[in-house]
Design goal:
By secondary structure, this protein is mainly α. Helix content is 76%, strand content 2%. The chain has a two-stranded antiparallel sheet with strand order 1-4. It is globular and about 70 Å long.
């Protein structure tokens, strides 16, 4: 096998290259760190949303049918499907900053509806709206961070962004624990969504401090504006950037693989001969991972309660608090997995870590499956349960949960980056919605053991598909250089 040669259609002047090289080759400054931190708020809210609805569904489980529980859980990720695909294209046409602000407002509106929900249908609608906001954020935040990051630290920053998902889970779990310590009410879940609303509004206002992506401005020929923004990040290069911005004029920056046949829309370009393999690599493993990740993550409180029912105290409120503590403790290893990924992904590469991660997820679910069928009790039972969850969460975030998020922004050019990221995230959330809707029904009909076996098989399948596309993205390349390096083997 050999590397395919990619012919490029470029409109990249010397001034364009020099402007972008300042972002790519300069050390990370404090202002860039601020932009990264605020842009990462959407993945934080994803973690908060998953934990809040997961705890709420457990609190409401006696009042909801399995079908309604599945619908409410799935509505969060179903909304993400629409948000990432529909609004993702807005990020390419209207700008990254506008979409980053808009999606946080959408999340706040959905959480506010859940705060005052008095019926399962309002709760479902609120979760759908939250999902739309989160889905669009997945499309634009990965794109934005990739476009403003130095090339040598881009991998770490992308992993760090998705790591905020785990921080959101831990933050929400901690806040939920505090609320349940002070309140014993059938409406505790409303308080949890009020907290979610407040967090979303805070991030909404903070995002007005973001700058527009210089790469997005340059693709429109707004080179002077791009240079001014970069000069704010690197004040010592201001004079140089002023000259480069003026010299570049209004020439539109473009580095893209030319198509044999023109696609009618940007969206259809993803399925062209030139990009279809990149679309598969960036979306299918993520689709399978999200079936497992959201199914297990959203229903961890329920799964944990099911497999640990033999040590329940009989006091419903105390058992609910203990379940939140157990879930939050397990989620600590999600964050630990991301910390491991920050070290290993740049060292060993995305695809290799993705393979290792899917293998670890399979092992974790296999341990939980054995704990469920072997009939062990007492301390050994608890060790197997927590051990299985820990292995699953640790390897998931050390591998595919970090790597799938970062794939599309590097595989696609500026003109398609939000659209491609949106499609990959949206396709993944279809898998998540499928898992979230089906798992409660399978659990109710066939038991928790079948759910655990299903997640193990899905993890193994994701490993196999990733191995098929095992070739690696090039390390330490600019986003433009990535377009000239085909990652696919040709026959």
């Amino acid at each position: 096998m050999h590397k395919a040669v990619v012919n490029l259609q470029t409109n990249e002047t010397k001034e364009h290259q020099q402007i972008l090289s300042i972002i790519d080759n300069s050390p990370m400054g404090s202002k860039q760190r601020w932009l990264w931190f605020i842009a990462s708020g959407g993945t934080l809210m994803d973690g908060v949303s998953v934990m809040m609805i997961g705890i709420s569904l457990h609190l409401l489980s006696a009042r909801l049918s399995p079908v309604m529980m599945g619908l409410i859980g799935a509505s969060l990720v179903l909304g993400a499907v629409f948000g990432s695909n529909i609004l993702g294209k807005v990020g390419d046409s209207k700008g990254r900053k506008k979409l980053l602000i808009l999606n946080m407002l959408i999340i706040a509106v959905g959480a506010f509806a859940c705060t005052f929900s008095n019926s399962s249908w309002i709760l479902l609608l609120g979760q759908l709206i939250i999902g739309i906001g989160i889905g669009s954020d997945f499309a634009v935040s990965a794109t934005y961070i990739a476009e403003i990051s130095p090339r040598k630290t881009r991998s770490k920053l992308m992993v760090g962004t998705i790591a905020f998902q785990s921080i959101g889970l831990l933050l929400a779990g901690t806040l939920a624990y505090l609320v349940m310590q002070f309140f014993d009410s059938p409406h505790i879940y409303n308080y949890l969504f009020a907290i979610e609303t407040g967090l979303a509004l805070l991030l909404f206002f903070l995002r007005f401090s973001l700058s527009e992506s210089p790469r997005w401005l340059m693709k429109l020929g707004r080179n002077r504006e791009a240079a001014i923004i970069i000069a704010k990040l690197f004040p010592d290069r201001k004079d140089e950037l002023d000259k480069l911005g003026l010299a570049a004029g209004t020439s539109k920056h473009s580095v893209i693989i030319p198509l044999e046949k023109e696609a009618k829309t940007n969206f259809m370009v993803l399925f062209s001969k030139e990009y279809i393999k990149r679309t598969i690599l960036s979306s299918v493993p993520w689709f399978l991972m999200d079936i497992a990740t959201y199914g297990v993550g959203l229903f961890t409180p329920i799964i944990l309660a099911s497999v640990m029912k033999n040590i329940a105290t009989g006091n419903i409120h105390i058992d609910e608090i203990n379940n939140v503590i157990g879930t939050t403790t397990i989620d600590l290893f999600l964050l630990l997995g991301f910390i491991v990924a920050l070290w290993l992904v740049p060292k060993f590469g995305r695809v290799r870590m993705q393979n290792i991660g899917f293998g670890g997820m399979f092992i974790g679910m296999a341990i939980l499956f054995l704990a469920s069928v072997l009939g062990v009790v007492g301390r050994e039972h608890s060790i197997m349960i927590f051990g299985g969850f820990i292995v699953f969460n640790l390897f998931m975030n050390a591998g595919p949960n970090a790597t799938t998020f970062a794939m599309a922004p590097e595989l696609f050019p500026t003109q398609l980056r939000c659209t491609a990221s949106g499609f990959a995230a949206g396709f993944a959330k279809i898998g998540a919605a499928l898992g979230i809707f089906v798992f409660p029904i399978i659990k109710n009909s066939f038991g928790i053991t079948t759910v655990l076996a299903g997640v193990a098989v899905i993890s193994l399948l994701a490993l196999v598909i990733t191995i098929i596309y095992v070739d690696e993205i090039k390390k330490d390349q600019s986003l433009e250089q990535q377009q000239s390096k085909s990652i696919f083997d040709s026959n």
